[in-house]
Amino acid sequence: MARVCKYLAMASAKRQGPPEPHQPPATVAVLVRDGVLPMELGLVHQLFGNARDAAGAPLYRPLTCALTPGMVETDADFPIRAAHGPEVLAEADTVIVPASHREDEGLRPGKLPAPLAAAVTAAAGARRVASICTGAFVLAAAGLLDGRRATTHWLSTDLFARAFPAVTVDPDVLYVDEGAVLTSAGEAAGVDLCLHLIRRDHGAAVAAAVARRTVVPPHREGGQAQYIQRPVAEPESTSTGAARAWALTRLGDPLTLAELAAQASMSVRTFSRRFRDETGLTPVQWLSQRRVDRARQLLEETDHTVDRIAAECGFGTGASLRAHFQAGVGVSPGAYRATFRGRG
User: Fold this and answer.
1) How confident is the model at residue 21 (pLDDT cuts 50, 70, 90)?
2) How far is 165 from 154, CA to CA, in rounded Å?
C-alpha cells in the first residue's frame, strides 16, 4: 500500500508540474513565564520542529521567548533559557502560551501585569494565538476570548468559568478552534492542538508524518473527552483495542455495533460502555472520525472521485461523505483537496 501511495504521489507531482518555490518557515513563538511546565514547551518545539515539506525543508521555526530574555524557572527542579524577548511576538505567525500554574488561576479580566499585558497585545497581531492548559487564563484576562468558546484543564474549568463570564467554557474537550484564537486542555492535549494546527496549515499527510516521527497518535478530534475513565485497560479487563484495530482494516465495510462487540467477545452493552471508557467516544463517533481521517488521506494522495472515496471509507454515498467531512473538517472534500493536494 505504501508503494502504491508513493507512486500516486509521484504521478500527481508530474501532472502538477514543478513544485512551488520554497517558502520560508513560519515562526512559532512560545511565550514562557516562571513556573512553565517543561513538557508544554518541549512538545511545541518537538512537533513544529519536525514538520517538513516534500523536499525535507522545515515548515516552521519554533522560538522560545520570555518577558525578559534569559533564565526562566520551571515547575520542575531545573530552569530553562529563553533566548528571545517579547519583540519576536509581533513578527510571529503563531504565538503559543503554555501554562504557569504559579500565576494563571489568579488572573482576572483586565488584570494582567503590565509586562505580560504588553506581550499579549503584541501577540494579538499574529495570525493566530493559542494556549495550552491554564495558559487560557492569560488569553481570557487579555479579552481575547470574550464571546468565544474556550477550554482549559478540566480541574480548572469551574474557576475559569467563574472568573471569565464573557467566555463560553467547554470543560470536556481536548481543544477548541475559534479561528484566530485556540485553546487546549492539559499538557497532553497540547500535542493534539499542535498537530491540529499543522494539519490545518499543511494537510493530514504532513501532520501524520510528524506524529509518526514523535510516536504519538496522529489525530484525536478536539471534541474528544478530556478525561477518559479508563485510558489504559485494566489488566483484569478485556480491552476494545483489538476491535478497533480490526475495524481500521475494514473502514469501507458497513460495520455494525454487534460485529465490533463480537471481535472483543463482549455483549453490545458491555462493549459500548467499555469503548467509551477507553476512548471517550461512542463506537459510532470513533468510526466516523476514522473514516474522515481515511478520506483526508485519499483526497491528498489519489485522484479518486468523491463517490469512490465515500465507498472506500464506508460512507456509502458522496453526499454522506460531504456531510460528515464538512462537519468534521469544516470544508468540503473538494476544497480540502484543492488546498492540500501535493503538499505531503
Assistant:
1) low
2) 17
